[in-house]
Design brief:
The structure is a single chain. This protein has about 280 residues and is an alpha+beta fold. The protein folds into two domains: about 1-50 and about 130-275, Trna Endonuclease, Chain: A, domain 1 (3-Layer(aba) Sandwich); about 55-120, Arc Repressor Mutant, subunit A. Helix content is about 45%, strand content about 20%. It is built from nine helices and ten strands. It has helices at about 1-25, 30-35, 60-65, 70-80, 95-110, 130-145, 190-200, 220-230, 260-275; strands at about 40-45, 110-115, 120, 150-155, 165-170, 175-180, 205-210, 240-245, 245-250, 255. The strands form two sheets. The chain has an eight-stranded mixed beta sheet, with helices on both faces. The mean pLDDT is about 90.
């Protein structure tokens, strides 16, 4: 009984924090105004050409499914084989039974259809999983943290080119997040350099480099961050482990992966930052 009571109290506390954050968000300027104060004007955001999303009536269910790492890996595979795939083509990261359920789930939403001997995506050509992942992480900020969030942003006349994957307003602070759907072996030093360039240009209170993987970050990603910090600082700050595969630099720049849970890892980052920024 006591465990149930503690769980109920924790849930009530979470709901109260979300309510307070929503109230604070309504009392502070919207995200576009905060960006404008820093000289950033949004030119484009949230492109829809490569989104792998169902009709609105299925969105809540799809959002919950996207929390599963195996489902996200499955979506990467069916995008790779979108014109035609058999179950064995998309069963690398889950059992055949689970994969069959995933395919039927996609068919039930109209995102996949049966062909002779296999299946295909029902939508037009999808270049990559990247934009769908950016949409999902933005939804995490909105749903789990009552935070304003936009993704796939391009600004007018910035010093640094390219897209900003996600920007959010959290308790009046600007958060910038780089979102990588590729595994660590396909991430290169130039991408770490571009991340730091954007952080320097935007000057967000919080910056996060996120890789959608459950692999170790210490083996490659952290090493590349160490190398980049040495290039940029005479006395480079240390990359310090928070726990498991979560790391921080000077309490405001974070490296995270998807191990355990993306929402839980984002929560740990926010808690770390706000506890140390007071």
């Amino acid at each position: 009984m006591s465990d149930n009571k503690t769980s109920d109290e924790s849930q009530s506390l979470r709901e109260e924090i979300k309510r307070l954050r929503k109230s604070l968000s309504e009392l502070t300027p919207p995200l576009d105004v905060l960006l404008k104060r820093r000289g950033f004007r949004i030119y484009k955001k949230e492109p829809s050409e490569d989104l792998l999303l169902p009709e609105n009536k299925f969105i809540d269910s799809f959002y919950e499914m996207m929390k599963k790492y195996s489902f996200r890996l499955f979506l990467r595979d069916i995008i790779k084989h979108q014109k035609f795939f058999r179950l064995e083509n998309v069963t690398r990261y889950a059992t055949s039974e689970v994969t069959k359920d995933y395919v039927e789930y996609m068919r039930s939403m109209g995102l996949a259809e049966r062909l002779s001997g296999g299946f295909r995506l029902s939508l037009g050509h999808i270049k990559s999983f990247g934009e769908t992942l950016e949409w999902f992480v933005a939804e995490i900020f909105k749903k789990e943290f009552a935070a304003e969030a936009i993704w796939g942003i391009r600004f007018k006349r910035t010093m640094v080119g390219g897209d900003y994957d996600l920007i959010s307003k959290v308790d009046g602070a600007i958060l910038y997040m780089e979102i990588k759907s590729s595994p660590p072996k396909q991430i290169y030093q130039k991408e770490i350099s571009a991340f730091f360039d954007r952080v320097s240009d935007l000057s967000p209170e919080i910056s996060i480099f996120f890789v959608d993987t459950e692999l170790r970050m210490k083996d490659k990603i952290v090493l590349m961050f160490d190398e980049e910090l040495k290039k940029r600082h005479v006395n480079p700050p240390k990359v310090i482990r928070i726990e498991k595969e979560l790391f921080q630099i000077l309490d405001r720049t974070f490296i995270i992966n998807a191990k355990d849970s993306i929402p839980a890892n984002i929560e740990k980052v926010l808690s770390w930052y706000f506890r140390r920024s007071q």
